[in-house]
Amino acid sequence: MHDISIISMIFTAALALIALFLVLAPFFKLDTFIQIGSKDQDLVTTKQALLTTLNEIEFEYKMDKISHADYKNLKKQYETEVAKIMKEEEQQIVATNIDKDLMAEVEKEIEAQMNFYAKKKGEGK
Questions:
Q1: Spatial contact of 96 and 89, defined as CB atoms under 8 Å apart
Q2: Helix (H, G, I), strand (E, B) or coil at 6
């Protein structure tokens, strides 16, 4: 009888914790804690939005809805933002390539060391 009450207390505590989690979970966004690759997605989304805005500005200028001066200022502003994002994307690509080159070099060194020790071990027999 005593074992059953301990098991029921543990089960009740587990149910209470699960219920508490389910009630409080919506107040905390999980994506703020886990961000895997979201920066890349944000860059792509932002760049697409800026390019769309540039097209809309050009369309409005051609429809004579905005002045030439406003068109030039807005176009320059958005093109500068797109250029910054493209540079950041390029830097990420370069960093990724450097990492791949570095890893290839490290793997070659490891393989060379393994071959060296295998030869050394073979000579020792």
A1: no
A2: helix
b/e sequence 62-87, b meaning 16+ C-beta within 10 Å: eeeeeeeeebeebeeebeebbeebee
Q: Are 50 and 78 in contact (CB under 8 A)?
A: yes
C-alpha to C-alpha distance for 22 and 11, rounded to whole angstroms: 17
- pTM reported for the whole predicted model: 0.48
Burial per residue of 5-30, b for 16 or more beta-carbon CB atoms within 10 angstroms, e otherwise: eeeeeeeeeeeeeeeeeeeeeeeeee
User: At residue 32, does pLDDT exceed 90?
Assistant: no
pLDDT in tens, 80-107: 999 999 888 888 877 777 777 788 888 9
* Contact (Cβ atoms closer than 8 angstroms) between residue 57 and residue 71: yes
